[in-house]
Amino acid sequence: MKKIFLTFVLVGCWLNLALASDLGKGFNALTSGDFKSAFENFKLACDKNDALGCNALGNLYKKGKGVEQNNELAKKYYKKACELGLKPACDSQDNSDKN
């Protein structure tokens, strides 16, 4: 029983590191101004249901950084981040048509 529990803990940690890796690379690229790489890494994170990655994609689409500006796609990614439990994304989704 302890081995099974330990296995689940280790797998969970590994999955978190994999998610953090895409997200971390995205934020590193964003801070260095490499918006294309930021987009690619945030997309990978979002595809793995990382709410912060989805929210970051929404921000890129809203501001037109690394992608063509698109409020509909911004809203789509804010909505996904909101559904994944990120409260600020819910607010961004509600306000995405107002800005």
Automatic annotation (TrEMBL):
Its top-level enzyme class, in one word, is hydrolase
Similarity remark: Belongs to the hcp beta-lactamase family.
Protein's name according to its UniProt entry: beta-lactamase
| Top-rank taxon, per record | Bacteria
Q: Which UniProt keywords apply?
A: Antibiotic resistance, Disulfide bond, Hydrolase, Repeat, Signal, TPR repeat
Which molecular function GO terms apply here?
A: beta-lactamase activity
Q: Does the keyword Signal apply?
A: yes
Leader sequence segment: 1-20
Q: Which Pfam families match?
A: Sel1
Look up the record and give one Gene Ontology term from the biological process aspect: response to antibiotic
Which reaction does this chain catalyze? a beta-lactam + H2O = a substituted beta-amino acid
| Database matches in InterPro entries | HcpB-like, Sel1-like, TPR-like_helical_dom_sf
EC number(s) per entry: 3.5.2.6
